[in-house]
Every structure is written in structure tokens, then in C-alpha cells.
Amino acid sequence: MNMNYRTIILAFLVCTLTCNAQLPSCSQILTKGNVVDTARFVITYDMRFTSIENDTLHSDDRKVLVGDRMSVDYSQTTYYYDSIGTDMYVHGAENVPMCQDFVFPYEIFNHYTDKTNRIYYRMFMDTGILRYDEEIQPQEWKPVPNEHKIIMGHTCNKATTVYKGRSYVAWYTLDIPIPLGPFKFQGLPGLILAISDSEGKYAWRATGLERTKRPIVEYRYSNVIPCSRKKARATISKMFKAPFAHINSMGQQVFIMGTDGGVRQASPQYDEHSMNVFFLEKE
Prior knowledge:
The structure is a single chain. With 283 residues, this protein is mainly beta. The chain is 14% helix and 44% strand. It is built from 4 helices and 17 strands. The strands form 3 sheets. Strands 10-11-12-13-14-3-4-5-7-8-9-15 form a 12-stranded mixed β-sheet. Strands 1-16-17 form a 3-stranded mixed β-sheet, covered by helices on one side. A hairpin with an 8-residue loop joins strand 3 (33-49) and strand 4 (58-67). The longest helix has 15 residues, at 76-90. It is globular and about 65 Å long.
């Protein structure tokens, strides 16, 4: 992607929408940012999720960096494409790759001391990154006695909760006294190694854990759009329902390559392949 070029030519876009797939997002250049903490642990989770109604489950490789003041949960796949794009950019490339894999497009900073979450959401193509802050709302957990499971060699206890309209079952271990987990989950007396919702739409399972002294960086992305949580959800819903209209409204033009090899500007008729977004947080 040319960082200053706002016209996008995509041959596969209509097929992507017809197949109910997620549109790709553009890579970000990771040359600017602030070190906000130092991670003591890195936990890797395999996340299974759906992003739209009636879609199949997709997998995302998530990293959770745990520091003394905050943690961050992000997609390793997204970071991989960002890193490649950054390397190409600093070596003079005008175009960098898009992340075309199915990823959970949220990056979540959990500020323990401020009791706030900062959320970044990557929208389709190069249409921007939504950013909003919210107060942390801890889950109310109910321990389930006498039920245990071994995950990654650790004995785990069971607990349940209802959070933002979904019911969850979590498995946490007292072997690792970190009161956190993936996404926004926290408050148990040990690290959450697995958690899933009752509908089978979202699930995380830890696949790796290591000690580290790695910086936690909040990157200064381009085209960040500050907003409220309410505004972000409305924008995301609108984006899925009319993706071409959304892309055009953000100052970009979309062109479609036909079977005859000709290129033409996308018209509103292509938004007949609208999608209903499936929010993890129902409320």
C-alpha cells in the first residue's frame, strides 16, 4: 500500500463479500510509539471466533503481554504483517502488504492502575483505526467446586461468569498467580488458561507461556479515529452492512476488476452483500 495513495483496486473484493469473509486491513508502520510498561510474562492463546452472523469459526494467534502496570492483548498475525510492512517501508518500499488473514481486529490495553481499557479496532482496508477508552468492568466469577482440568501441565479450576451478555466457562490455574486472561477477562486468583462462551462462538486456549523483559509499546498508528465505545460500535455495524459505502465515505475509491479484465468503480449495488457484525460483547 502506498501510504499516501487513497485509490484501491481490488479484483477479489466482490468474491470476498459474497463468501462472507472479512475484508483485509492495511498494515501499519511501527516506527513511532511509546513504551508504556515492561512485560514480565508473554502468554500465547489460540483464539477461535466468528465476526459475522452465520459465519464459520476462524482462528487468531493472540499474544498477551503482562506488565506491572498494564497488559496488552493483540493479534500476532497483525503484528507480523505490520513488522514486514515496516521493514519494507524503512528500506524505501512504496507498497506494503495487507493482512488478508482472518484476525480478531482488536488491540486491548488493560491499565490496572487507571482502571481503564484502551481499545484499538482496525477497520477494513485503510479506512482507519477506531480508538476509545472505557472503564474496566471486572467480571463476577462463580467458582465450580470439584471440577478440574489439566492444561499445559497445570491443574486448572473451573469458574463461570456472565459478561456483556454472554455466559463463559473459564479454567484457571493457581500455579500461576496472575489474575488475568485474554481479552478483558480478569479477577480470578490465577491465570486463565482456557475460556469459552456457551454459544460456541468465542474460545481461547493457552498454548505458550514465557517469562520476558519485553517492552510494552503503544504504537502511534496512522489514521487513528478517537471516539466513544457507542460510536465505535455504530461505525463497525455500518461498515459491515455497507462496506463499499463505508470505504467511499472515508475518502477512498474502490474499483472492481471484471471477468473481462476491465476496471470500473464499485457502485452501491455491490453492498447487496452486506454482513451483520457479530459483536463479542452483546451489550
